[in-house]
Amino acid sequence: MSYSFNIIVAVDSQFGIGKSGLLPWHLKGDLKYFKERTSHVDTMGKKNMVAMGRKTWESIPQEFRPLSGRLNVVLSINPRLSLPDGVLRCENLQQVMDQATVLKDDIESVFIIGGATVYKEAILMAECRRLYITHILRKFECDSSFPKIPPYFKKNIQSDITKEGEVAYYFAEYERLNP
Ligand SMILES: NC(=O)c1ccc[n+]([C@@H]2O[C@H](COP(=O)([O-])OP(=O)(O)OC[C@H]3O[C@@H](n4cnc5c(N)ncnc54)[C@H](OP(=O)(O)O)[C@@H]3O)[C@@H](O)[C@H]2O)c1
């Protein structure tokens, strides 16, 4: 049995997630939530793995990557992709799970953090156990989107609505039924 993983994403009212390779919005509260959620561990000495597509990696400003305190994994089939020390490259999602299994003494949870190509594949995998979705209650201009949530995911937690300027959003957690 390989590792299970979680997906974390922010979606607009139409499930849009990106525009021209970037996030269509800037929400401090959501960035804070993302950092806390993907960094939190219950076991001292362990850390979480964050796995992302190569384009999402490239969209993170240089000064903020790799994402601190987490093992960064970049999905790419390009063996010549240049990455900083300590950042791993995986050729597919199975390899991500295999890496997590090899490093199980050091890694607590695995988060798939985007983008569209990776979410589309990851959400259909049996190992995908939980979705952390920030629902932004507004439509933005987007050119990439999050897939439809399969019916076997059940929303079990929903936060109050937060407002940042004109933008309202809330955090929700979905759990896979009968994992
Ligand atoms: N709203 C959010 O929460 C959120 C989160 C993350 C990203 N985003 C947005 O999403 C957009 C980027 O999404 P995207 O779909 O264009 O790009 P992406 O998924 O970040 O990256 C795509 C690249 O990742 C590699 N890749 C993807 N799946 C792979 C697999 N199964 N095996 C091996 N390599 C794989 C390939 O790289 P190679 O070509 O190098 O092989 C592919 O070209 C941006 O606008 C970003 O801001 C939004």
SSE diagram, text form:
Layout: E1 5-11, E2 16-18, H1 28-39, E3 47-53, H2 54-59, E4 71-75, E5 88-90, H3 93-102, E6 107-112, H4 116-122, E7 128-136, E8 144-145, E9 153-158, E10 162-164, E11 167-176
Parallel strand pairs: 1-6, 1-7, 3-4, 3-6, 4-5
Antiparallel strand pairs: 2-8, 7-11, 9-11, 10-11
The protein binds NADP nicotinamide-adenine-dinucleotide phosphate (NAP).
NADP nicotinamide-adenine-dinucleotide phosphate binds at residues 9-10, 17-18, 21-23, 52-56, 59, 75-78, 91-93, 113-118, 121, 144.
CATH topology (level 3) name: Dihydrofolate Reductase, subunit A
SSE pattern? EEHEHEEHEHEEEEE
CATH superfamily: Dihydrofolate Reductase, subunit A
Major sheet attributes: 9 strands, mixed
Give a quick summary of the entry.
The chain is of the alpha/beta class and about 180 residues long. Helices cover about 20% and strands about 35% of the residues.
From the structure above, extract its key features.
two-stranded antiparallel sheet, globular, Dihydrofolate Reductase, subunit A, 179 residues, binds NADP nicotinamide-adenine-dinucleotide phosphate
Give an overview of the whole structure:
The chain has 179 residues and is an alpha/beta fold. It has helices at residues 28-39, 54-59, 93-102, 116-122; strands at residues 5-11, 16-18, 47-53, 71-75, 88-90, 107-112, 128-136, 144-145, 153-158, 162-164, 167-176. The chain is globular, with a radius of gyration of 16 Å. The two termini are 12 Å apart. The model has no long low-confidence stretch (mean pLDDT 96).
